[in-house]
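User: Modeling request: complex.
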Amino acid sequence: MEQGPAGVSAAAAAASTGGLLLPLSESEQQRYSELFSRCCPPPEAAAGGSSVGELFRASQLPPDTLHQITEVCGAKRVGYFGPTQFYIALKLIAAAQSGFPVRIESIKNELPLPQFVALKNDSDVRYGTPAELHGVKFQVPHTSLEKNSYKRTDEGDKQEPKSPPMSPICSPPASPSTYQRVPLSYGYGKSRSGLEQQHGAPYEVRHTTHQQDGPLSGNYGAKPALACSTLNRSLSGEREQQDSNAHYSDDPWRITEEQRDYYINQFRSLQPDLNSFISGSVAKNFFTKSKLPIPELSHIWELSDVDCDGALTLPEFCAAFHLVVARKNGYQLPETLPETLVPEYLQAASLKPMRDCTLFDSYSESLPGGQQTRDFSRTEKTSAEEVSDSSALLKDGKKDDKQALKVSTDLKTIPKEFQHLTVKTAAQESNTLKARPRSRSYSSTSIEDAMKKGEEPPTPPPRPQKSHSRASSLDLNKIFQQNAQAVRSGWLPPPPPALPPRPSLSQTEQVSEVELHPQMNKPPSQAEENSSAKKEVVIAQPPSKPARRKLRTETQGLETPELSPTINVTSSLPAVKPHLPVQKQSSKQKRAIQTAIRKNKEANAVLARLNSELQQQLKEVHKERIALETQLEQLRPVTVL
Amino acid sequence: MAVCIAVIAKENYPLYIRSVPTENELKFHYTVHTSLDVVDEKISAMGKALVDQRELYLGLLYPTEDYKVYGYVTNSKVKFVMVVDSSNTALRDNEIRSMFRKLHNSYTDIMCNPFYNPGDRINSRAFDNMVNSMMMQVC
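Assistant: Request completed. Predicted assembly structure:
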């Protein structure tokens, strides 16, 4: 607070007002000098016109009054806001706010301090944590109108690091290109010096802006907003500051561009490959640093890890980080993930500008279909995109059959893996049962599937796992095909010749009416395979995973049109083929799988019908049984305990 | 619809137990506790064979007048015990199996959470929601 020079200038003002003594009370002096120093950094002699204009508008007086004031105080005449003019103007503002007419005489009265609404409001808003994120919206509607104004008026240099109200104002970006920018609150003071251009500012320009802005009050957010936009993106390390960002359309769960960039940088620090994911332990350490209580972190994890694979992809990480940030700022955690934080949304939002690819619209649409198969009943079939759904459909089909035929073999095989795998890989294994719909990777699921299929030729033996992987699904194709044929032909089909070790088991199972063999054939065969391939599974899983990742990153390195495989596998695969020989095989396999899918679908329909018929029969049989039991009890004199 | 669902850890202490909020919740706790003996019996009986072939679903552990108790054990010796009202005869075996399967899947989802230490009590809201959906609706 420049009391000394302010006092001097006040005295000078008093002396130099053309014979007009300006009595300033102590508090007035203080306030005025503060305001003046805010508008006008010490070395200058006159306040910047634009900043003064902002201040005046903050007084919430009608623009006519403000014009009058500027005329009366002499700034217009002089052409700039010297200290005298400034003080007179402030006095006049106070007078106007008290209801006095804007005249030189009125300033002689005892007047309260001029009120600058925006300033005070903003200071209140700034420190209220729940309102923190919303206080910015106070500025949001203004800045849109301010876009023109700030271009013409010079950048406000009214930003002092000590003025906290400026930071939330800074947040609504006035730059036309991006609507959301980070108020890097305390850092913007640095740029002040670069923005001072005022002193030649034509006053007429400001007048026009006055008229333009009209009833807007407190709209000096435009200047600091522009200042912020010119700032480098040096983000402060404190996450809290991220929260004072403007949230587009007042939604605290929406991630702004700066926030996203910050999250991406953090992601990079943990895991250099943006398309890969962060493992659970790494993420745990990272988020524990936020000092939130563990149950809350656990809940945040549950919300953000939608595919429940124990790892965070980039969109999942952004969502988790955003939730942490929100929680630190006092927001209660939601029960379910807000839709702006859902990974598909984040992927689409982040990928669109980066890739500039309309393919992703359809891709992101297909993804929700793919992922939701997990959320909804697993028998639900998505029809979005062929390849990513093919496995989903396969699995759904499998599940249909299994549930219908009372086979718990899939679970049996999952826990086997639990026994032998680490948690992460076990989770992945168990997830792969449902995992096909869950495209956990940042890249397209089809590419990932292509990778997985590409890996099948190299490592077929260890992987005839029950459900998820392609190898087993191909086996199932044979089973289903034979199953379908068998079903059509009759009731109890012979075991498929492709699975020799099983005939004995299958024959014993022929006894049961309800269960179809081929389903039971699977578990014994898998049991045998599993027992023999236990160890191999452990080893195979981790290698296949990094291999998959490597292949995926390779494909990611290819240009964007390659992303079309996600949409139209067959057509795009030829384009991809020259790049990777592995994918050649995968494309053929894909076609094979697609035909298998169709056949499976038919088989599913048949089996579903069969299932319903069997259920009915079962009910009838139950009724008969109950009737017989009651008869028996009636005949029997004494109930046997 | 179950009346009581419990998740028991390997060391036979409960990780999660939830009953329909009627009176006599303690009775369900006792029931679950005593059913652990039956579970161990079944495990040891089957344990002679190769572990892989052991069925996870243990089936009906024992019936009493009012209710039946079903068991399920994972490969990591985490047990799920479900008490079902006997009057609800419409519940078939495969429905029980599917309920256990859902429990198992939710349990693995919890395991995936790096903030969950195995052996802790289960405090997950998602798990709670899933269990609530399986519990009997108290009129």
